[in-house]
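wait is this the right file?? whatever heres the structure
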């Protein structure tokens, strides 16, 4: 991406702002028409964190732990799927989850973090929430000795990164670039777009910015963009889309920052008779897949986001059992994204195979309950 921006996503991603179903090495044959999957990897020790005691005759037991999670917002379907992934993994490990709903507003997120601190959780997970919006509360959690892991949406500022112990996230710029390449292939190098942003989350916004950079570099045009109002998500989702498309009748596509927008914007496009304009979005959530099956004009950047939930539990296991420092980036992370325009109704990156892979790993290193 040509430029760096500082702010947040809670919405996306959050809104997400948000982001899911995933598998590091398995993908369902769900797309009748797809672009080639894009994979990005980070370097590190092969296989991720491992237990030194794995080779011992007696495997170490998994200690009972309580994990605090702040759900960014119930309006983000990807956040709901992440919570389901957390629950499945916690069941395997015998861990207890305490989940707080983030509303979503920065004040509610902060209040939720504060509540979890008072409940003495052993670790704090903030999936899809911009760390930048939680500075004082995260500082309090750190002072209490609670490990803090940010998941799903990348932290977009150095100040934000300094607030957490780990950032296991999707590559939003890669998703934005993949969608832009689809637009250029479909409409030519002079394609025109309008875009919905979520500047409250620099990480989530990075995907839209990468989309714009790629489009403009090819000769395309961003006709207009509008920012989401974190205090009134539903209204701003719909009104922004209506305003931009009515003011720009020549727009070829509508680029959306967050998965939640699909639920609200599709009816708005029908209302103003602009269903001819493809909506570009992220995450092949169940409702998004169902809308596509019903004929909705959607282009989806499907990603293996749920892997981040298992990565978080994997490093926490090593931390709790062996005292191993939590790596800021997950070693050898493998991020995949596939752009789809048709679906068979199943997620591109199912969670089950990925969970099986981590359970196999954990079973070789620990005595699971």
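ok assuming it is, sequence goes like this
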């Amino acid at each position: 991406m040509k430029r760096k921006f500082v702010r947040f996503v809670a919405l996306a991603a959050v809104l997400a702002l948000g982001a899911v179903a995933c598998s590091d090495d398995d993908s369902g044959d769900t797309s009748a028409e797809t672009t080639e999957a894009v994979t990005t990897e980070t370097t590190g020790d092969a296989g991720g964190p491992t237990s030194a005691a794995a080779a011992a005759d007696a495997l170490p037991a998994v200690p009972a732990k309580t994990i605090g999670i702040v759900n960014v917002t119930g309006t983000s379907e990807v956040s709901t799927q992440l919570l389901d992934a957390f629950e499945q993994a916690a069941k395997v490990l015998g861990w207890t989850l305490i989940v707080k709903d983030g509303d979503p507003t920065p004040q509610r997120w902060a209040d939720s973090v504060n509540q979890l601190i008072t409940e003495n959780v052993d670790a704090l997970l903030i999936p899809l929430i911009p760390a930048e919006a939680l500075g004082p509360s995260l500082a309090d959690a750190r002072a209490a000795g609670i490990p803090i892991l940010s998941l799903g949406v990348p932290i977009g500022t150095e100040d934000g990164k300094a607030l957490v112990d780990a950032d296991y996230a999707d590559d939003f710029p890669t998703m934005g670039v993949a969608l832009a390449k689809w637009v250029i292939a479909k409409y030519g190098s002079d394609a025109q777009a309008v875009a919905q942003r979520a500047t409250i989350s620099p990480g989530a916004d990075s995907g839209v910015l990468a989309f714009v950079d790629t489009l403009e570099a090819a000769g395309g045009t961003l006709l207009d963009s509008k920012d989401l109002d974190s205090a009134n998500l539903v209204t701003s989702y719909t009104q922004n889309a209506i305003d931009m498309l009515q003011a720009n009748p020549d727009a070829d596509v509508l680029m959306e920052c967050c998965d939640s927008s699909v639920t609200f914007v599709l009816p708005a496009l029908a209302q103003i008779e602009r269903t001819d304009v493809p909506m570009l979005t992220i995450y092949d959530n169940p409702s998004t897949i169902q809308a596509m099956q019903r004929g909705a004009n959607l282009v989806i950047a499907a990603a293996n986001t749920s892997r981040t939930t298992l990565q978080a539990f994997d490093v926490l296991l090593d931390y709790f059992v062996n005292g191993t420092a939590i790596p800021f980036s997950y070693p050898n992370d493998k991020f995949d994204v596939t752009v789809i325009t048709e679906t068979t109704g199943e997620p591109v990156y199912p969670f089950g195979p990925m969970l099986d892979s981590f359970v196999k790993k954990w079973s070789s290193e620990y005595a699971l309950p």
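Confidence is low (pLDDT under 50) at residues 1-36, 42-47. so i think its the right one actually
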